[in-house]
Amino acid sequence: MASFIKDALARNLRQPRGGPVGWFVNRYVFENLNRGLEENAVKLCDISKNDTVLEVGFGPGIGIQEAYMKIKDGKGKIYGAEISKKMIQKAIQKLQPQISAGKVELVLADVINLPFESDMFDHVFHCNCYYFWDDQVACVKELRRVMKQNAKMITVLNEFSLKEVNEKGIMKYGNTDPEKYMYSLKKAGFHDVNYLKLKSERGNPFSAISARK
């Protein structure tokens, strides 16, 4: 693979943009490869119909849509924070009815400076996201701030896929090391930090990191 293509892929994984490479990353990675991870992240959150939930780095909105199904008949609400304007545009198209109904709210924001009140969320989740946080401790401290006491945060990843993209040099703008992320969680004050190797209902292996405020 040509070096300029690798670099374009790496940049779009960090912050999705437009163009042919951005289209490929959205369709192949976010829409296809990440779909199962998003679904499993929502399941692990164990969301109730009256919960307030945040997804960070929601991409095209698959996880937001899945989480909405858990609260649609209750008083709950799903929020999403995303740094890519392109992804927000795509997610708004997908989730317009839910947004109009006041059950979903999407914001353009960096995880290190979230526009939410403290002690606001019952659950937080993210998928293939922490790799691109330059200051992981500061970012997870900010996430901890907006979580309610005893709230749980879930992140999901696929070890096989990460190994493959790391070997190809496509993750050069990120750090996928789960131990570094777990260290950051503990340093930020999270407890019950656990690394779980699991399988989806379809039998596909994936990993999850859980942490509680």
TrEMBL record:
Gene Ontology biological process terms from the UniProt entry: sterol biosynthetic process
InterPro entries listed in its UniProt record: Erg6_SMT_methyltransf, Methyltransf_11, SAM-dependent_MTases_sf
Stretches assigned to the Methyltransferase type domain: 54-154
GO molecular-function term, one example from the UniProt record: sterol 24-C-methyltransferase activity
GO CC field: endoplasmic reticulum
Pfam families membership: Methyltransf_11
Gene3D superfamilies: Vaccinia Virus protein VP39
Family: Belongs to the class I-like SAM-binding methyltransferase superfamily. Erg6/SMT family.
Identification of the protein by name: Methyltransferase type 11 domain-containing protein
Annotated source species: Magallana gigas
